[in-house]
Amino acid sequence: MKILLDFLPIVLFFGSYKLYGIYVATAVLMAATALQMALIYAIDRRLQTMHKVTLALILSFGALTLALQDDRFIKWKPTVLYGAMSVALALTLWALKKNFLKLLLGSQLALPDMVWLRLNWAWIAYCAFMSAINAYVVLHWSTDAWVDFKLWGYAFPLVFLIGQGLYIAPHLKNQGRT
């Protein structure tokens, strides 16, 4: 159920774009994301920081898109989100000497510090890549192509998460051994 909930806004955005265009799709994305966050809150009784940031960006960039009738705002939202995540992870690591991923997930996963560091670096690189690739598509492709990229571009996070799981799996198996 939760995985379906994660994909709901993008699927509704894609379908409404194909039927009604970017402005209706933007309004649908805003409403679907607000509903998604309400359901997550109802299930978990809280929202992660990432949920709050995503909701705020979708609502603000979506409102600008609709108010100004300019689709560039909604198309740049992923670039801003991923770029901010990459910078925040890097600054937390370099300036504060903290590993944000370990702070966030360390109570759920017992991994060696070097594994946490490599995961943090992987997330910095992944977010920078996703920010750059979205910017490239926005600048060089049509809105139709960008919408298709948003749907089929979900292969990137799936591959990244699978790779991350394969990387940490051996370290999790060794946890129970002495």
Q: Explain this structure to me?
A:
83% of the residues lie in helices and 0% in strands. It starts with a helix and ends in a 5-residue tail after the last helix. The chain is globular and about 50 Å long. It is built from eight helices and no strands. It has 178 residues and is mainly alpha-helical. The mean pLDDT is 91. 22% of the residues are buried. The chain folds into two domains: 1-70; 75-178.
Reconstruct the topology from this structure.
Layout: H1 2-20, H2 22-44, H3 49-68, H4 72-94, H5 100-105, H6 113-140, H7 143-152, H8 155-173
Helix pairs in contact: 1-2, 1-7, 2-3, 3-4, 4-6, 6-8
Number of domains: 2
Order of helical and strand elements: HHHHHHHH
User: What does the radius of gyration come to?
Assistant: 18 Å
Main structural class: mainly alpha
Q: Tell me the number of strands.
A: 0
- Average pLDDT number: 91
**What ranges have pLDDT less than 50 throughout 5 or more consecutive residues?**
none
Shape: globular
Strand content: under 5%
State the helical fraction: over 70%
Biggest β-sheet: count, sense, barrel?
Answer: none
Count of DSSP helices? Answer: 8
